[in-house]
Fold this sequence. Notes:
Elements: H1 2-44, E1 48-51, E2 54-57, H2 66-85, H3 88-113
Antiparallel strand pairs: 1-2
Amino acid sequence: MDKLAKLTTDIGKLWETYSGAYFTGIRNTLVLAVVALLANRAAKDKGRICLFGKKHAVFPVRFNPTVLYVACTVLACCLIACLLLGSALFAYYCMFAAIAIELIGAVYYTFQLK
């Protein structure tokens, strides 16, 4: 019983110290999941999504979601690795990877507009 009390105390201390980082990670993961869901729905309906009974064009008719899926997968892997490793240096370099992926996606979709 003494070990359980010590474990509970340690969990409380960890939660007090790192709860902000956990909530930020949870929020980022949820945003990433929503973007992936919207891209999936838009891909099935020729770049349109239905929100509140109204159809909105999010992507061009010839939308290819592969680049967006790859970007979401890479960003999710970076997010999970940062949460598991807890290294500020790794998170710093992941930020550059995320920026590069977003720029590649922006250029790709800009050329798709024609």
